[in-house]
Amino acid sequence: MNSKTVHIKSFGCQMTKLDTALVTSALKEAGFSLTGSEKEADVVLINTCSVRRHAEQRVLSHLGNLKHIKQSRPEIVVGVIGCMAQRLGSELLEHDAVDIVCGPTQIPQIAEFVTQSLQEKKKTIAITEKIRRQTSKKQTLALEKFESVFDADDRQIPNQTFVRAMRGCNNLCTYCIVPYVRGPEISRPPAAIIEQIKRLADKGVKLITLLGQAVNSYKYTTCEKTYCLADLLQMASEIEGIEWIRFVTSYPAEKFYSEILKAMADLPKVCNYLHIPAQSGSDKILKAMNRNYTADKYLELLDKARDIVPGIAIAGDFIVGFPGETEKDFQQTVSLVQKARYKNCFIFKYSPRPGTTAEEKLQDTVSTEVKKKRNIELLAVQEKISDELSKEFLGKTVVVLVEGLSKKPHLNAKNGENRPQLVGRTATDCIVVFNGPTSLAGQFAKVKITKTSPLTLFGELA
Ligand code: SAH
Ligand code: SF4
Ligand code: F3S
């Protein structure tokens, strides 16, 4: 047992949150203890994201703070792990604050690197040189072992966790850095995934979210058969204790789409929720993004989803200000959002990522001002739709899986000591805030909706 303490910060997407949970378990297994206080930690690890410049800037400014902390406590070890470590490699290692640079493929060795760094005080870097080459068998096995030995129970939200279905991505959307930091697409063996979910269920996990950058393209061939995501959903549904199953993110393509939606319609445990980013409503821009569909084709996919799964909640992502996006292109995006009637969508301002096709071949023509303006306009269009959809819940009773105390004080607060504000989500990912006992965290509850806002439903325990 060593008595060193570790503080871990996580800046990325769900994949990265899952990696953070795995790294946490690995370090605990190696005898480290976790601390919430960065100032007192012997080791500070930052798990990072490269998807937009802003995400990286936040990490760099944090490293600036750590440099100051290190001036008074030079013995602390600082490690940057994840996507930004892979992207920047030795450039990051040169930063005064940084001792360890460890890419997403190398995280199974993280405990080893930290121990070494504490003992020997020398800088360590471990990233993949030719990231778009097929991941070696050895690396895949190491990742698989790491993943299955250390069951990720994300302690932040009781009784729910992410489960990786796939690693990497092969879509090569021209704006996106993910394929260059996460490597080629690999589907995990279904047996390993199902075993893992069973173990998680034994620990009380009720909701699992299967992860993949284009999770609907999950495909794994054994000597007996080829498994698709629908098969995984079916097998996961049979596991006792698992009550809800979600999967993100879906790529708008026909492959396996009907099978997956049929599984959603037929299997009560599979939540009626689809996160299916469109990115743009202009065919010209979609083509330049290397998204292999048109706006019409995309809307057809949504119609099909609503046909097969009535009441399905759909969420989307958009990038505004992609190179060459004119006002006309943008208005086509607005029109798509109006037709799609998303429950909610995430809107991002285009950020050129070094090494991607868009950054190398296309000029970032849309000014920051115009990007901002389009972002605000699109958000307003979506907000109106979200508000209308939220209002349909008024007076209805919904089932939520309770996450815990709600972070923000909300308007309907009733400051009763034993009934603080709790937050939960419906199967369709609607956020619900209500007063109730904290013992409900991690449990299902019925809430009657009495008030709504575009992104939050408010109610009373039924
Ligand atoms: N694999 C998922 C999401 C990956 S990144 C998918 O394909 O849907 C999450 C979101 O970030 C993307 O959907 C996209 O909307 C946005 N994004 C990716 N690269 C970006 C960039 N260079 N600038 C701005 N937004 C970007
Ligand atoms: Fe990036 Fe496209 Fe892959 Fe999503 S599907 S991770 S946007 S390359
Ligand atoms: Fe996720 Fe960001 Fe990496 S979106 S996969 S943490 S680049």
Secondary structure elements and pairings:
Layout: E1 5-10, H1 14-29, E2 33-34, E3 43-48, H2 53-72, E4 77-82, H3 83-88, H4 90-93, E5 100-102, H5 110-120, E6 124-126, H6 137-149, E7 160-164, E8 166-167, H7 178-182, E9 186-187, H8 190-202, E10 207-211, E11 219-221, E12 226-228, H9 229-237, E13 244-248, H10 257-266, E14 273-275, H11 283-288, H12 295-308, E15 313-320, H13 327-340, E16 344-349, H14 357-361, H15 368-391, E17 397-405, E18 421-425, E19 431-435, E20 444-452, E21 456-461
Parallel strand pairs: 1-2, 1-3, 3-4, 4-5, 5-6, 7-10, 10-13, 14-15, 15-16, 19-21
Antiparallel strand pairs: 8-9, 11-12, 17-18, 17-20, 18-19, 20-21
Describe this structure in words.
By secondary structure, the protein is of the alpha/beta class. The chain folds into 3 domains: 5-126, Rossmann fold; 137-388, pyruvate-formate lyase- activating enzyme (Alpha-Beta Horseshoe), CATH 3.80.30.20; 397-461, Beta Barrel (OB fold (Dihydrolipoamide Acetyltransferase, E2P)). Helix content is 37%, strand content 22%. The protein is built from 15 helices and 21 strands. The chain has helices spanning 14-29, 53-72, 83-88, 90-93, 110-120, 137-149, 178-182, 190-202, 229-237, 257-266, 283-288, 295-308, 327-340, 357-361, 368-391; strands spanning 5-10, 33-34, 43-48, 77-82, 100-102, 124-126, 160-164, 166-167, 186-187, 207-211, 219-221, 226-228, 244-248, 273-275, 313-320, 344-349, 397-405, 421-425, 431-435, 444-452, 456-461. The strands form 6 sheets. The protein has a 6-stranded parallel sheet with strand order 2-1-3-4-5-6, sandwiched between helices. Strand 1 (5-10), helix 1 (14-29) and strand 2 (33-34) form a beta-alpha-beta unit. Helix 9 (229-237) runs parallel beside helix 10 (257-266) and helix 13 runs parallel beside helix 15 (368-391). The model has no long low-confidence stretch (mean pLDDT 94). The structure holds S-adenosyl-L-homocysteine (SAH), iron/sulfur cluster and FE3-S4 cluster (F3S). Iron/sulfur cluster is lined by residues 169, 171-173, 176, 178-179, 213-214, 251. Iron/sulfur cluster binds at residues 169, 171-173, 176, 178-179, 213-214, 251.
